[in-house]
Design goal:
With 210 residues, this protein is an alpha/beta fold. The protein is built from eight helices and eight strands. It has one domain: Aldolase class I (TIM Barrel).
Amino acid sequence: MKYIEKLQYITHDHASISHIDQVQWACEAGAKWIQYRCLSKTDEQLLADINAIAEICDDWGTTLIVTNHTHLHGMADIQGFHVENMDADLLSLRLQLGNDVTLGGSANDLAGIIRLTEAGADYVGLGPFDVTTTKPNDYPVLGIEGYQKAMLELKKIDNNIPVLAVGGIKLGNVEDLMQTGIYGIAVSGAIYNADDFIGAYQDFYDAVKR
């Protein structure tokens, strides 16, 4: 089983904080898992970002995952990919990328988690927990109850894939979320919008690891 970190920071196209700065600050705060999520740049611009970010991650011993953009595999020091399209053919992607590459996928319900498990995903981002402006979508908000139900059903069928809550999560939600039995949390806006980025990351880390 591959290493999957319990607190994952997702970068965002922020008007005043570059992806590179977000990664630098997150690593300084102790981040061991970065998901570079940028859907607004050309391949050349993406690779420039990724190469700079990979150096930072290497310095701090941090895993670098790239959202989508699986065609960049082998072109930079990327440990894995997270595929947001819930209808994507992850089984074919697993065959293309090989077993050494970490591969995660997004789901909104139990059926999605099972599908990703069967396709060879290493972890699942289940959400959205709440309304989020970072990644607008039309999927139903799950809330605490949604995670409780999903984790209970996974336990019944002995499915142990790491499930991370994602989407609109605030610090005050973490304790209740972790008590549902989920593996961890993926966070973006609650950290990059905080007055103290590093302090916010560390607060989340403490809450997840508690």
